[in-house]
Each structure stands twice: as C-alpha cells, then as structure tokens.
Description:
alpha/beta; 6 helices; 5 strands; binds zinc ion
Amino acid sequence: MSHIDALKTRNQNFAASFTQRDLVPLPKLGMIIVACIDARVDPTTIFDLELGEAVIMRNNGGRVTAALIEEITALSFLVGRITGQDAPGFHIMLMQHTKCGAQQFAAPDFQADIKARTGIDVTPSAITYPEQDLLTDIARLRDEPNLHGGLTVSAMLYDVETGLAHEIASTQSLEVLRKKAADL
Ligand SMILES: [Zn+2]
C-alpha cells in the first residue's frame, strides 16, 4: 500500500465517525499558532488540539517573516469582514523548537548559495538562539504597523527530545509592547 493509499484509508476512518459539520471557520480558542514545518513539531498533536480550535501557520523555522506578517494581516481583515468588527482580537502564539533545521540558514555560505541560485534571502528564517529569536519575532510583530495593537502575543520553545513546550514570553498585547518600546 502506498502512503497515499494509507492516508485515504485513514481519512475514510475519520469521516466514518465525523460529527462536526456545523463547525465555524473562526478558531474557537481565538489563537494563531506559528510553528516550524518540521514534521516532529505539529502543534495539533503537541497541544492536543481539536478540529476548529486554532489557526496554525507554519514555515521554515516558525519565524515571523514578511510573508507571515502579510498572512496574519490579511487574515485579520478577513475575520473583520466575517465578524463585522474593525479590529478582531487574536492571540498569536509563536513556537520554535530545539534541534531546528533552520539553524542551517544561519550559515553564511549556505545563505549566499541560496541567494545566488534563487534570489531568496533566507536570513529572516535563520535560527541562531531560539530564545533570542523568539524575542526578535515578537519585536517584528510589535513593529509592524499593519497589525492592530489589540492583538496579543506569547512565545514557546518546544523540546523535541522531551515533548515539553517551555514558555519564553508570557502574553502581552502589541499595544503594551509598543508603549514599552517607545519609553526606552
Ligand atoms: Zn524547525
């Protein structure tokens, strides 16, 4: 049996007991979880999420890149249109993990090679010290004027060897983070 056939069978089993036809598109927990695409760090499994509970956005490293900010901005407008609210409130939970392959993007020779072959700058996706990179990503959200100040953000670091996610930054609103930055 091919892997595709195996997934088809799993889906048929899933559909056989499916009872959630009335789910709404907005996440019940009001959360966006940003995580790495690494197959070991699927937030649905790690946080035991149910269908419809959270929006999950994944990219190389789970970093806050320009592309990710565009997605969140567009989503905010989309949710605003659905709900009729100008500034829908969301919590953005950033999650990076130990032993991340995106550490390779920090190597100058690899960065230069990708840039020369494709024109792509992978620097914003590079992982160096995850605890620090998570704080950098919170600052990237804070400094993005298209994101509403009412959005809240937190950060976790997931350990692929223990299965535990450790809190690196507790929940704060972008508005409060902007005030703190302005006071410095
Ligand atoms: Zn990773």
